[in-house]
Amino acid sequence: METSLFYTPAKTVVNRHQTFLKTWLTHHILANVLGMGLLHTAISHTLTGPHGVRLTPPQWVAHTISLLLFSFILNFLQNKALQLQFKRGNFTDLGYFLVCIPSAFWIGYYAFYIPFDILFMYLAIGGINAWRLKKYFTDEKKWAWQIMLALLGGALVGIAAGMAAYFGFVKDIKVLTGDFLLWLCITLPASVTYASISKLFLRQHVTGKVE
Questions:
Q1: How many Cβ atoms are within 10 Å of 180's Cβ, its own excluded?
Q2: Which residue, among 51, 66, 146, 49, has the nearest Cα to 105 in the 3D structure?
């Protein structure tokens, strides 16, 4: 029996799905820990010093630069994961990430203050992916509410972990070290939560399996 040149063994397809899902998980965690957990603090708090409720212009600029860098890293690493499953460029939708994520962060901060900056930032990530990735899935509406739910869950877990860490031990640590610990305590639980939940949802869409 002749084998078609276009035939893809089922095992290869399954392996590709698994690789994609694992990469989606690890890349999102890496982007959050590197971009917000480490670089955000290093840029926004080291260069311009600690701040109160009101930021000086240099502090605002430093924070915005760190948010733009996080958005860039997240977009790039997410696209590298998506390329394992879909046809996609390295910087597809970068503009949406660079505009929406910092904007949502600042709207949350100035309109409602902490922790709504974190909440709005993660919801912005969910909103971008709900809108821009829906074309890859048959059930677009299902994907949209699933990814928003995943990011909401991640944000709430990150906020809860951050508040527990701050009142538990971070507030008694010197400023810079405390800032690094605080943002790691926020971004690691948040990213593990939303990346794990969204991975489960993605599995449904790319393999048709619920678990």
A1: 19
A2: 66
